[in-house]
């Protein structure tokens, strides 16, 4: 029998009063309005969410909190309100006051310090300041593990990508808040660290990992925080779709809340729902019904952020659910007990009606200011400084000019929990409110940073911004004029124009010629002021610094690092900072070098077995129609070495691995790794991988490694067409030392029925209006101009694709987009037919099961602003050329998945095979055994 619950304290007999404690609600404005007053007086609201839209200053916050508590007391509330706030530090602070509230680094910035003690001290200081203004419940810590860096809205709000490290820092943050007297609320269960975004912005992001996969990784910090006494937990509104789980909104699911969180993780605290006013939820279910489902699932507190009508609908819905018997009184009382227990730990009427306010904040100022300085100076990370550009006075004379290039970015978000995935769920924002939450807008803080650089060195600093328009003439002129350049990026892994701009500036600086004609590289420093992943593994950026946020305090510390007044001690958090090590297999198979005469037939037999295995489970194999010849480039510009594990008696191959060393880019590539399906999990793959890495490390020209080869085009990376298999493969390669969090999506696409295909009208119109000339060349005198254009693109295999195309007329050609005024090549793409040499290396072409032609390797100059228009124009002309050859199908290979797929689907293409391309610095590999 279940234990009998203790009776409720006196004063809680009324159902309406009980239900009021099960809601947390927000409101608009910086003063108490009639709506929030009514919610407290008439509906017995138990918790209020304050956000940036409500808070002007520390003093005003204290007055607002006191007024809210006074209304509750006068309305007969037996216990004070829980007043909640997001205050994650870094760029996510709902309360900003330059005088009384100190700025501290983001969660990832704190993790970069390497100090768990510092994490607790910062959290305690933050909690003390909030407690002083009447806040008693903090919506934190963030416990998400950032298992994917692409298209994830969390960024530096997490401590990193290592579950144990996120867990350790999360617990320290939690204990620091609790020491200051605040209730805590972990987020965002079951994890926002690896969301998939599909459809429109109103659609809900999806967690595709299985419960087993989540348990091994993403749930680790939540489990440990629960064990250490976490007070509350926010359950997100995201969907879940994997084997055994099909959930539309996690916070409405009994499987997530009651089974996973309550039973499996043994959480006994307060469960808070995501805001039920989010667009997707109101559209799919409705607020009233959603409230009943959330409570039925196990949520104790229902969050409604702003709309008074929705808030009333939620309360009415819950009451109706009780009256109809869907929810019994015992369930309401169970949640009430949890809420009251939490409130007893973080507030009382004496505290609520007597906050410390500004006077106590004044006393905290000296110690908290010193703590803020210590935290920021310990977090700034110099990832590398290969050419010794730091401090700047070592390369810059007092009378020389320094150029600062900064992106135009929005103000730092001061997030409320309802907007934790704001860019993809109900994305409307109140920009003026967000501005109040950050120290300055992005533009203002960078302008002040430029002034600080000038003041510190006593010299001239040139400063201008850049946008998605790319490198313009004004930038080129300033770069030519300056003696050193600093480029700021802010989350370039998601804002891809910043990545392209920085790479273009880097190219200009490396090819700089002095007025005397001397070729001399111009000093370039790249600073990431948000996600450290922007250029963490890109060794072409020789000097790279990370600050983890772009608050004024962070950038002041950066100034000191740049001029040598501060020795940076931060290090990249999580797995990205560790040397990648090869794990030694438990079984060591004899790996032999590929011998074409001996092994070709055996490899064809192995490929047939793999294809048959895929067909048995209904999968389309990437190896369809691939033969052993498809792995052999036979190119003077590419060193290839392939390896096999074989039975020396029967000559059968158990495994095959192809590797290529591309001299043009210094990239060592593992192009395929194939194991007999009947002999997997016997360490054959480990042995082949180990031997491949050793072979690539022996080549002096190899500076980086890559999983996936664009030439030959069999596997572009880790196959991802099958979500379940994708998870297994990503984990397998991660265990070998590859940082799969830094992967980039690529795919092959196909357009069928060319004879009846009609291009979208708007596309043909935009192509006619574009101020660009297009032409088609087949080898000839234009070879060198095309290859000069290709050299600006550093990806492996691209140069070799173009060389093959130029040497194989009339079966291959190059379509060029040129600037009319000077004939400069702005963009190019390869077209070829199925009789070309190139077709031998593109497996997707053979997989199309029709007379097909191909389009390959689009290159758009980084300086071009109209990227999408040029891309679609090249592809449209490529389709026309393929159709002229009599083909009915066109295969487009090597499509970058970051933003291109949707537009191409709009043209009629569909995805044939999808992959994740993974790269890493070769210098980070550490082989335990001698070569």
UniProtKB/TrEMBL annotation:
Keywords: Carbohydrate metabolism, Glycoprotein, Glycosidase, Hydrolase. Residues 638-713 form the N-acetyltransferase domain. The keyword Ligase does not apply. It comes from the Eukaryota. GO terms for biological process: carbohydrate metabolic process; peptidoglycan turnover. It holds the Pfam family Acetyltransf_1. Residues 15-341 form the Glycoside hydrolase family 3 N-terminal domain. GO terms for molecular function: acyltransferase activity, transferring groups other than amino-acyl groups; hydrolase activity, hydrolyzing O-glycosyl compounds. Belongs to the glycosyl hydrolase 3 family. This is Glycoside hydrolase family 3 N-terminal domain-containing protein. It comes from Elaphomyces granulatus.
């Amino acid at each position: 029998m279940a234990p009998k619950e203790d009776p409720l304290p006196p004063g809680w007999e009324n159902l309406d009063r009980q239900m009021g404690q099960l809601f947390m609600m927000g409101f608009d404005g910086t003063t108490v309005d009639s709506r929030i007053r009514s919610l407290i007086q008439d509906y017995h609201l138990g918790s209020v969410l304050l956000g940036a839209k409500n808070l002007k200053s520390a003093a005003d916050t204290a007055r607002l909190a006191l007024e809210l508590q006074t209304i509750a007391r006068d309305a007969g509330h037996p216990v004070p309100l829980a007043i909640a706030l997001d205050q994650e530090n870094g760029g996510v602070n709902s309360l900003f006051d330059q005088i009384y509230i100190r700025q501290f680094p983001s969660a990832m910035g704190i993790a970069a310090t390497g100090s768990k003690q510092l994490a607790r001290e910062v959290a305690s200081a933050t909690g003390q300041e909030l407690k002083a203004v009447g806040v008693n419940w903090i919506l934190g810590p963030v416990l998400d593990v950032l298992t994917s860096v692409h298209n994830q809205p969390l960024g530096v709000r997490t401590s990193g990508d290592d579950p144990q490290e996120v867990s350790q820092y999360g617990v320290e943050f939690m204990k620091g808040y609790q020491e200051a007297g605040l209730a805590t609320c972990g987020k965002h269960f079951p994890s926002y660290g690896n969301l998939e975004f599909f459809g429109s912005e109103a659609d809900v992001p999806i967690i595709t990992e299985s419960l087993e996969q989540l348990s091994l990784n993403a749930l680790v910090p939540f489990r440990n925080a629960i064990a250490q006494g976490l007070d509350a937990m926010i359950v997100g509104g995201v969907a879940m779709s994997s084997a055994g789980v099909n959930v539309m909104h996690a916070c409405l699911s009994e499987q997530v809340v009651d089974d996973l969180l309550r039973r499996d993780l043994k959480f006994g605290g307060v469960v808070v729902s995501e805001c039920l006013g989010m667009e997707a939820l109101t559209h799919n279910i409705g607020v009233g019904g959603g409230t009943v489902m959330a409570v039925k699932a196990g949520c104790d507190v229902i969050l409604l952020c702003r709309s008074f009508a929705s808030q009333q609908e939620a309360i009415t819905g819950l009451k109706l659910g009780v009256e109809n018997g869907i929810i019994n009184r015992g369930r309401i009382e169970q949640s009430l007990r949890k809420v009251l227990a939490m409130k007893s730990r973080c507030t009382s009427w004496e505290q609520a009606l007597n906050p410390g306010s500004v006077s106590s904040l004044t006393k905290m100022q000296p110690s908290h200011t010193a703590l803020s300085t210590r935290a920021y100076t310990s977090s700034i990370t110099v990832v590398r400084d290969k050419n010794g550009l730091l401090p700047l006075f070592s390369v810059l004379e007092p009378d020389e000019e320094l150029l600062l290039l900064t992106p135009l970015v929005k103000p730092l978000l001061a997030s409320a929990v309802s907007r934790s995935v704001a860019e993809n769920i109900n994305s409307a924002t109140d920009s003026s409110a967000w501005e109040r939450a950050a120290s300055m807008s992005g533009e203002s803080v960078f302008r002040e940073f430029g002034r600080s650089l000038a003041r510190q060195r006593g010299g001239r600093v040139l400063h201008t911004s850049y946008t998605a328009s790319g490198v313009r003439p004004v930038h080129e002129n300033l770069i030519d004029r300056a003696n050193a350049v600093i480029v700021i990026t802010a989350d370039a892994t998601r804002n891809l124009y910043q990545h392209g701009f920085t790479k273009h500036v880097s190219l200009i600086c490396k090819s700089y010629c002095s007025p005397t004609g001397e070729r001399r590289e111009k000093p370039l420093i790249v600073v990431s002021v948000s996600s450290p992943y922007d250029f963490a593994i890109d060794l072409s950026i020789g000097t790279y610094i990370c600050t983890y946020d772009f608050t004024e305090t962070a950038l002041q510390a950066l100034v000191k690092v740049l001029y040598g007044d501060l020795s940076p001690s931060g290090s990249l958090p999580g797995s990205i900072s560790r040397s990648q090590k090869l794990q030694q297999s438990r079984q060591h198979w004899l790996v032999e070098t590929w011998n074409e005469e001996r092994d070709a037939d055996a490899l064809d037999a192995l490929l047939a077995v793999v294809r048959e295995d895929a067909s048995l489970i209904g999968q389309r194999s990437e190896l369809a129609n691939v033969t052993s010849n498809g792995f052999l480039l036979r190119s003077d510009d590419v060193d290839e070495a392939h390896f096999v594990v074989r039975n020396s008696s029967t000559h059968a191959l158990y495994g095959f691995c192809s590797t290529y060393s591309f001299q043009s880019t210094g990239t060592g590539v593992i192009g395929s790794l194939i194991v007999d399906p009947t002999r997997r999990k016997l360490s054959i793959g480990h042995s082949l991988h180990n031997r491949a890495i050793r072979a690539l490390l022996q080549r002096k020209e190899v500076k980086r490694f890559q999983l996936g080869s664009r030439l030959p085009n069999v596997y572009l990376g880790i196959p991802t067409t099958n979500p379940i298999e994708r998870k297994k493969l990503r984990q397998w390669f991660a265990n070998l030392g590859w940082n799969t969090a830094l992967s980039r999506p690529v795919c092959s696409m196909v357009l069928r029925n060319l004879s009846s295909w009609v291009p979208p009208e708007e596309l043909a119109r935009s192509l006619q209006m574009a101020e660009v000339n297009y032409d088609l060349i087949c080898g000839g005198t234009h070879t060198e101009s095309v290859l000069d254009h290709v050299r600006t693109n550093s990806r492996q295999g691209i140069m070799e694709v173009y060389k093959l195309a130029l040497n194989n007329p009339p079966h291959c050609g190059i379509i060029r987009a040129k600037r009319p005024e000077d004939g400069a090549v702005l963009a190019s793409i390869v077209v070829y037919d199925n009789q070309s040499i190139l077709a031998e290396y593109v497996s997707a072409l053979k997989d199309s099961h029709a007379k097909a032609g191909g389009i390959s390797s689009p290159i758009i100059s980084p300086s071009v602003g109209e990227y999408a228009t040029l891309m679609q124009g090249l592809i449209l002309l490529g389709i026309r050329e393929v159709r002229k050859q009599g083909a009915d199908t066109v295969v487009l290979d090597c499509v970058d998945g970051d933003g291109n797929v949707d537009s191409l689907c709009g043209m009629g293409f569909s995805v044939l095979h999808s992959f994740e391309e993974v790269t890493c610095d070769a210098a980070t590999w550490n082989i335990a055994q001698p070569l």
